[in-house]
Amino acid sequence: MVKRRALFLDRDGVLNESLMRDGKPYAPRLPAEFKLLPGVPEALAQLRKAGFLNVVVTNQPDVANGKAKREDVEAMHAYLLKNLAIDAVKACFHTDREGCTCRKPKPGMLLEAAAEFGIDLASSYLVGDRWRDVAAAQAAGCKALFIDYKYDEKRPDHPYIAVESLPEAAGYIVRGDRWFLREKTLERS
After folding, report:
1. 2.30.30.60, 3.30.470.10, 3.40.50.1000, 3.30.565.10: which CATH number matches 6-188?
2. Considering the entire predicted model, what is its pTM?
3. Which single residue of 8, 51, 60, 88 has CA 20 to 30 Å from 41?
4. 10 assigned to active site
């Protein structure tokens, strides 16, 4: 069986706007707060045309914390699946305290999608905006692209490539791995 390539996408800060409070990003809790970032539909279409599966992998602990209703979060995911070139949404509704295997930085959602869709993790990518996203990509064996918003929080560990947006990341990915190897060489010099 031929393995497929995928782009794993964090949701908040990658596909849609995060709500900022005191320099930290928060997920929208209601569908009315859910607003796509510029260029996201076109970037996802470009990646699908290039043969990538687009799989959202998102931590949504506000459900477990009682700050958001699961049906509201699921409505946002239904919107993504209906209106964008998204093939699947994997969501973790747990908190760190619960110790699940799906909550990023653990790679559980990526591994589950890889098994379900026959994804070759080594030829796949993850785009995220938090250290947890980059760590999950590294743990799963994917290449990581980090949208660096300069949040007031822990920074990811290398290796990763910093980008400004999903459209920029899509351009790099579609052009192939040469950029990744070149950037890694420059990063070490």
Report:
1. 3.40.50.1000
2. 0.91
3. 60
4. yes
